[in-house]
Specification:
The chain is of the alpha/beta class. It has 20 helices and ten strands. It folds into three domains: 4-167, Alpha Horseshoe (Serine Threonine Protein Phosphatase 5, Tetratricopeptide repeat), CATH 1.25.40; 182-269, 3-Layer(aba) Sandwich (Rossmann fold), CATH 3.40.50.720; 288-453, 3-Layer(aba) Sandwich (Rossmann fold). It is globular and about 80 Å long. It starts with a helix and ends with a helix.
Length: 454
Amino acid sequence: MTTARQQAETLFHTGNQQMEAGDDAGAERSFLLALAQDPGLAEAHANLAYLHERAGDAAAAEARYRRALALSPDCLQIALNLGSLLLDGKRFAEAEAIGRQALQIAPGEPAAWSNLGVLLACMKREDEAEQCYRIALALDDGYDKARFNLSYILLRQGRFDEGWRCLEARNWYEYLNRHFTFPRWRGEALTGKSLVITIEAGHGDMIQLCRYAAVLKSRGASRIAIICHPGLTTLFRSLQDVDAVFSITGELPSNGWDYWSPPLSLPRHCRTDLDSIPARIPYLAADPAGIEVWSRRLSTTARRVGLVWKGSPGFENDADRSLPSVALLAPLASVPGIQFVSLQKGRGEDEIAGAPLPLLPLGGELQDFAETAAVVSALDLVISVDTAVAHLAGALGKPCWLLLPDYRTDWRWLTERTDTPWYPTLRLFRQPAGGGWEPVMARVGQALREWVAG
């Protein structure tokens, strides 16, 4: 006779198979049926928690994780999952308590140390976070998650030598390694050689790092190609040191070149430190005819200021880097003599009608970054959250005021500085400790008055 426990385990395994097949609804039913047979099956509670978390129901996920951990207090993975959930909700003290519990469960497990390091880094306790990552690596030098996490602290602090080396722990470009028949570049001599800079990460990353084409040419490379997002192909053809541009959605070369490299590896192999960041600005250019076309849409008497208040919702820290509402732009409205131009495209465009200041809505008309570059080139200033448009303005040599969150500020903006060696024309406006956009926008409003008056 089959026991209730055996029936529960059979249903649990069925649920796992359904979850792996993407049938979350079927998996949830199986896990619930398993628990009806055996309410103490911790693994079923944990997997239900994971499904709730994936569906965006954090409260239900937390309840299930806590029940699972109570039933199986020595299960490291449940503790790690619960800690990550609490961190996502910025419940730092509770997350730290669970993180310490995870270390008690498995003090020799590198994942426990690395996860605690992530939490401490988010809390700006970077010395403690670094120690956690190094303990994880001492336990297992091949635990690349810890090395990758460590890279962000090092780069944010300007410790580029070790930071670039640790950043090599990422491995999200393996498909390109399989595609190319020529080797990856790891710093070999480039005289007379050709190299393909591949696509990596987002549009902003590509705009920031395409500058290395000129560095590679200065090291003797005979030909340089770039593989990029479709929206960047026309713009990148303005790069003087690039011989070919390929869209990632088109046909890509698999042979005929000597080397390939992900762009985020170029600073390491070009030995970039804080004092040697290539900053020959501008290194991108808009089409003069396009600038003329868009200029006709703009004021000829007022200062022209472009605005971007939201980034892509898919970015991991978007809830913090984007303004939650266009209403936060209100302190800019009282500054006279300015035509405000919305460069917002897609998400955020629906807020324009309710904006607290008049906006010329051009963002929705822009078909690619070449057109965006033409508009930006016709402006006097860009004010933007941390998105690709800010990188574009910097690469074009256009003055740009960058609005930065206090929580998980991107590594490339370093710490505390109001300027950036990556883009000399950028001015950084940071949230105060603990966050909040109101103080930032009040400072931006005052700076804008001084800018107009000056």
